[in-house]
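A.,

Following up on our hallway conversation. C-alpha cells first:
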C-alpha cells in the first residue's frame, strides 16, 4: 500500500484529506511535514519501524499520539507518574533564557524625536519601533560572547537541572538557521555564520547532564502570513516545519510554547483545536517530549503542565503538573535599566514553597546583546546553588513531592516530603522562633515523628505532640541564609500492598443517554481520556454525541479521606460506594470537580461508577485521586477492578 494511501487509511473516512491532515500521520514519509531529513539515528529506527509495520500491516501507525479520528484517545500516559515526565518532576528547578534580536536594544530605544522608550523583549511593540528599523538593528546583532559552556555551568552550579531558551519570541526572529525564512540569527545578523547557538547549547547541556528545552512563540509579529485568515495556514505550516527542525536538529527534551492567547496587532487566530492538533503532531514526532499548556490555550487539558507566571500557586494544581516561571529582576529580556533584582534568599524561599506544593521553578536570565548573562544574575544563581549544595539542604527540593496532604502548608516556611519517611520543614529565616518558642506543624492525619535535626547545624529540635500536630522547638538559632531546614524522620500511614486490579468495565454508547446496546464494551485500565476534538472511545463511535459508563470497584491503599478529582468535558457524574459524589451534568468546557469521601478502609473494595457524556467539540475524562498520604495521580489500574 502506498504511503499516502496508508496515511489516508489511518485517518478516519470522515477526515478531510489535506496537507494539514497529514500532520496527524507524521510517520507517513509522503507527508509534506516530513519532507525534511530526519536525524540519522532516531530517524533510522523510526523509518525501520514504519517499514516493518508497512510490511506486516496495511496501515502505518506512528504511535498512539499520532493517531487521529474516532477511536483515538490522545492521553498516552499520566504525566503525574509517567517515565516520560519523571526527569521534569524530579528536576524541580530550571533556567529560563530570554535571548533574541530584541537583546540588541538592551532594553532601551531612542525614538527619532529623541525620547527614550524602555522595554525588553516587547520593545518593538511597546516602543512602536518601525519594522525596517527593527530589522536594521537585528542586522547588527552579534552575540559573539555567547558562551554556552559557561551558561550551562552557571545553571548547573545554581542547581538548575534544565534550561529553556527562547528559540523564537513574538518578534518571529529565529535563533537557529531555519530554512523557513531569512529572519533568523544565521541569515539576518552580524553573527558568525559558522556558529549555531542552539547547537552549542545542546552540546554543552548534554555534556553536563542538563536537559534542554525550547521556548517557541506561536504569536508572530513578523511573518506576513500570520495576520490574515486566508494566509494563516501558510504560517502554521511554516511553524510546524520550524518545530520539526528544532526536534530533528537539536532533540529538545521540552517545548515551551507561548503567545497562544487571543489578541490583536497582529490578530492571533490560534485556536484550542490548533493546539490539540499541534500537540498530536509533536508527540508523533517525539513521544518523549514534555510540552507545556501554552501549546493550546493555557488550560488544564493542554500539554503536560500548567505555567503560572510571576506567581506561585497556593497549593498543588488540580489535574495538571505545574511550573512557575519568574524573572530575576522585572524583565525577561535583557534591560540595562532594570536593576530591581530579587535576592538569592527570595529565590531559595520561592523554590522551597514551590517544591512543597509539587511544582517546578523556571527562573529567567536575559543575556545582553553580546550574549553575556548579567553578573547580577550570575551572583544570585551562585548564592542559590551554594545554599542548595550546603549540608544537603537541596534535599528539601530535589526528588521531593508536596507534603501539603500530610501537613498544612506553614506560614513560617515550607514542607516537602521525600520518599515515605522524610519531611523537610524549611523555616524561612525571619520566622525562626525566639529562644524557648516553638513552631507548630499541623498534621492532617496522624503520624509519628521519630527524630528531627537541623541541616547544616549542630542544633537540636525537640518535637512534642501538640493539638492538631506537633510543636518543633529548636535549641539554637537559625542557620545562616535563606532558610533552616529541619529534617523530620517520620512514621507515616503505610499503604496496603498494591492491588491486582485490571481496570473498570467501560461501556460506550453512540448517544449521550446511555441508551440501547453499547457500541463498545471493554476493560479500561484507567479513566484517562483526552479525546480532544477528533477522538472517541472506539473507531465506530463518531467524535461527537457519545457517552461512556465505567463500572467496577475501587480499592484504597490508605484508610484516610480520599479525594476524587475529575477532569471532564462535557459532563460527568461519579458514584463511590453507592453515593453520587460528583454531579456536573451541565455541558461544560474542560472542568475540574472534586469530592472527598471519608470512611473508606484500605484494602477494601468499594463500588465505583463514572458516567461521561460528550455532546460536541472537545471531550475529556480523567479520574484522579489523592489523600493526605498520596499525591494526586490518575487512579491506578491496580486499584480498579471491573467486578
Ligand atoms: O509575552 C511573553 C513575555 O515576553 C515572556 O516571554 C513571558 C514568559 O513566560 N511570556 C509571555 C507573557 O506571558
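Then the amino acids I'd put at each of the 643 positions:
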Amino acid at each position: 500500500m502506498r504511503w499516502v494511501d496508508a496515511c489516508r487509511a489511518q485517518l478516519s473516512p470522515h477526515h478531510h484529506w489535506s496537507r494539514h491532515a497529514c500532520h496527524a500521520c507524521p510517520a507517513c514519509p509522503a507527508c509534506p511535514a516530513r519532507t525534511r531529513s530526519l536525524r540519522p539515528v532516531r530517524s533510522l529506527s523510526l523509518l525501520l519501524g514504519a517499514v516493518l509495520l508497512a510490511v506486516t500491516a496495511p496501515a502505518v501507525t506512528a504511535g498512539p499520539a499520532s493517531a487521529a479520528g474516532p477511536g483515538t484517545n490522545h492521553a498516552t500516559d499520566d504525566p503525574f507518574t509517567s517515565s516520560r515526565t519523571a526527569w521534569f518532576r524530579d528536576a524541580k528547578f530550571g533556567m529560563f533564557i530570554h535571548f533574541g534580536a530584541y537583546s540588541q536594544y538592551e532594553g532601551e530605544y531612542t525614538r527619532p524625536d529623541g525620547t527614550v522608550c524602555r522595554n525588553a523583549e516587547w520593545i518593538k511593540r511597546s516602543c512602536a519601533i518601525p519594522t525596517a528599523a527593527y530589522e536594521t538593528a537585528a542586522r547588527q546583532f552579534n552575540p559573539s560572547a555567547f558562551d554556552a559552556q559557561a551558561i550551562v555551568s552557571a545553571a548547573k552550579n545554581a542547581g538548575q537541572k534544565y534550561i529553556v531558551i527562547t528559540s523564537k519570541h513574538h518578534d518571529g526572529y529565529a535563533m537557529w538557521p531555519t530554512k523557513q525564512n531569512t529572519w533568523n540569527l544565521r541569515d539576518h545578523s552580524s553573527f558568525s555564520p559558522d556558529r549555531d547557538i542552539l547547537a552549542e547549547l545542546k552540546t554543552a547541556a548534554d555534556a553536563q547532564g542538563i536537559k534542554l528545552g525550547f521556548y517557541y512563540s506561536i504569536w508572530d509579529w513578523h511573518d506576513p502570513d500570520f495576520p490574515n485568515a486566508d494566509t494563516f495556514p501558510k504560517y502554521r505550516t511554516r511553524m510546524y516545519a520550524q518545530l520539526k527542525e528544532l526536534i530533528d536538529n537539536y532533540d529538545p527534551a521540552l517545548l515551551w510554547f507561548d503567545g497562544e492567547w487571543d489578541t490583536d496587532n497582529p490578530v492571533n487566530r490560534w485556536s484550542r483545536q490548533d493546539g490539540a492538533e499541534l500537540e498530536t503532531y509533536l508527540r508523533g514526532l517525539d513521544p518523549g517530549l514534555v510540552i507545556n499548556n501554552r501549546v493550546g490555550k493555557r488550560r488544564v487539558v493542554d500539554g503536560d503542565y500548567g505555567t503560572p507566571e510571576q506567581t506561585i500557586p497556593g497549593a498543588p494544581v488540580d489535574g495538571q503538573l505545574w511550573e512557575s516561571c519568574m524573572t530575576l529582576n522585572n524583565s525577561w529580556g535583557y534591560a540595562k535599566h532594570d536593576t530591581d533584582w530579587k535576592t538569592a534568599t527570595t529565590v531559595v524561599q520561592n523554590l522551597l514553597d514551590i517544591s512543597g506544593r509539587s511544582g517546578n521553578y523556571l527562573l529567567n536570565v536575559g543575556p545582553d546583546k553580546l550574549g553575556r548573562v548579567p553578573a547580577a544574575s550570575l551572583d544570585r544563581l551562585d548564592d542559590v546553588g551554594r545554599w542548595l549544595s550546603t549540608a544537603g539542604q537541596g534535599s528539601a527540593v530535589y526528588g521531593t513531592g508536596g507534603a501539603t496532604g500530610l501537613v498544612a502548608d506553614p506560614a513560617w516556611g515550607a514542607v516537602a516530603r521525600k520518599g515515605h519517611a522524610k519531611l523537610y520543614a524549611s523555616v524561612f529565616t525571619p520566622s525562626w522562633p525566639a529562644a524557648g518558642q516553638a513552631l507548630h506543624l499541623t498534621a492532617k492525619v496522624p503520624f509519628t515523628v521519630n527524630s528531627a535535626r537541623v541541616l547544616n547545624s549542630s542544633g537540636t529540635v525537640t518535637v512534642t505532640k501538640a493539638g492538631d500536630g506537633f510543636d518543633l522547638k529548636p535549641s539554637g538559632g537559625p542557620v545562616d541564609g535563606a532558610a533552616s531546614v529541619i529534617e523530620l524522620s517520620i512514621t507515616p500511614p503505610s499503604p496496603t500492598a498494591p492491588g491486582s486490579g485490571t481496570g473498570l468495565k467501560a461501556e460506550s454508547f453512540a448517544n449521550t443517554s446511555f441508551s440501547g446496546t453499547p457500541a463498545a464494551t471493554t476493560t479500561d485500565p484507567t479513566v484517562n481520556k483526552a479525546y480532544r476534538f477528533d477522538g472517541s472511545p472506539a473507531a465506530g463511535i463518531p467524535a461527537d454525541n457519545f457517552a461512556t459508563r465505567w463500572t467496577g470497584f475501587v480499592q484504597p491503599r490508605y484508610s484516610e479521606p480520599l479525594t476524587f478529582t475529575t477532569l471532564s468535558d462535557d459532563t460527568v457524574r461519579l458514584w463511590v460506594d453507592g453515593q453520587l459524589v460528583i454531579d456536573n451534568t451541565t455541558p461544560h468546557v474542560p472542568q475540574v470537580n472534586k469530592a472527598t469521601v471519608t470512611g473508606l478502609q484500605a484494602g477494601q473494595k468499594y463500588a465505583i461508577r463514572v458516567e461521561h457524556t460528550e455532546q460536541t467539540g472537545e471531550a475529556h475524562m480523567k479520574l484522579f485521586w489523592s489523600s493526605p498520604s498520596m499525591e494526586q495521580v490518575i487512579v491506578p489500574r491496580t486499584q480498579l477492578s471491573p467486578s
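DSSP finds eleven helices and 30 strands in the chain. Curious whether your intuition agrees with the design.

B.
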